[in-house]
Structure prediction request, 581 residues.
Amino acid sequence: MTQTRAAVIRVGLAQVNPRVGDLAHNLAQIEAFAARAEAAGCDLVAFPELTLSGYPPEDLVLKAGFVADNRAALEKVAARSGRCAIVVGFVDTADDAFIEQQTQPSANPPRLFNAAALCANGAVLGVYHKQLLPNYAVFDEARYFAAGHEDATLYSVAGVAVAITICEDIWVSDGPVARARAAGAQLCININGSPFERAKSGERERTVADRARETGMPIAYVNQVCGQDELVFDGGSVVVDFDGAVMARAAHFVEELLVVDVPITERVVAQNATGATTVAVSTPLAKSAPVTKRIAEVANDYDRILAALALGTRDYVHKNGFTDVVLGLSGGIDSALVAAVAVEALGATHVHGVSMPSRYSSDGSQTDAADLARNLGIDMRTIPIEPAFAAYLQMTTDAFAGRAADLTEENLQSRVRGTTLMALSNKFGWMVLTTGNKSELAVGYFTLYGDSVGGFAMIKDIFKTDVYALSQRINQRAGCEIIPAATLTKPPSAELRPDQRDDQSLPPYDVLDAVLALYIEQDRTAAEIIALGHDESLVRRIVRLVDNNEYKRRQLAPGVRVTSKAFGKDRRLPITNSYRG
Prediction:
């Protein structure tokens, strides 16, 4: 069957911010955006992957009651649907016995599905089960879901044959998208929960464009925008035509309803179906004036990272019931970056800085901290730790008799500061932000129960060299000095002993970060890194530090993931580990 004229289907991509486990909130979001899409004359509106449950729901799906409640929420979506078809992600089950009683779930094959329902005219008209389940990096969907294997189902929406796929389904050339096209699909809707990585935005669009060119079929790709524990989802929903050209793109890191008129041209013909079931949804409706084409710009690398840090922090703080944060302001670059991003995320009135000078703190560091607080407009208070530190030294005099002062006394200062921040947290209900960066955390250059104390580690996936670049970008964007020039130029120091500098304990950060990137993010062995030309003794030392401090990193707070391999869900090396490659 060949079309005799071009058709147009108006598609809405609902780039929303769901909450994992908050079915009522997610249902309200779906209803609100569906109403907006209906008012905009959309024939179909698509929501991201597992929007009803929130993504990723992880072990929540092992609770039979949660699965039942999410299916009940789907029925409410369907009951309130009208002419505009709604594509929404949810957790489905092929076995009602799972709902009635689930015993020993880990011992049985999963009977759950990562699913998408198409609802219209008060009913669920069809359900699609995700066929390709990612089980790498931060994804472990095979732990929870079974793969879908059903024959293609097409939906006649406004006279257009529409197929539904989910996230990973689009990453394989000869996969579900190609099979849907062969079955007669004229438009593919792909719903996603795709987390942010520094280089991933361009890769996503290239993948979507590749599938469109291979199949000669336009594709509408919708992604969620939110922070969920370590993960940040950056949106960037996009529609490409049959040649892979971008027709429309939503902004990154903000909620948006992107409305697009998708032409189904002569090149896109409805082929003879190969066993596909076609479900009638709606007939063509005369369109109002064409919608304005919107192609949002893609920000540069550092602006995207700053936006990811802000969104991840904002959602972690707010979704966990906090309004304010507190952090130690040392006058150093790490705490300066964390404070600046926290102000962007939460507003200056919700950020509290604390200077906690000791006998080793320089006047310049205290001045730099005060200048930063003034530039940001945040509350700052000074709580000297000398009385508590002196008390600890006096208290341990007998126990430490005959032993010279060493790292023990340095760490005592850090732990006094951590206790002070937690006391403020308890008293005022503020979440503590830690300020350690990826370089320091990698080699263990932090104090357990000291500067690592807190609820959220914002920059735990940011190498020190990028801390400087991001800080400079903040000043550049502001057109003035937000982070003091002295903070950007002075040698970094923990100031836990006289004249201490980081480079007394660590290699220069540009050298350190280059080795860490190879060892941590690329999983190279020490021998492989040495073969690339790096100094053998230096590499062996760095690798030993990374391996020996795995136990410390396991006790860190979660933080925003921005690279392909962050400490946390990404990197799961054994603590007890004798391999030295």
Remarks:
- Residues 302-502 form a domain with the Rossmann fold fold (CATH 3.40.50.620).
- Confidence is low (pLDDT under 50) at residues 1-5, 97-107, 268-272.
- The chain has 17 helices and 20 strands.
- The first helix runs from residue 23 to 39.
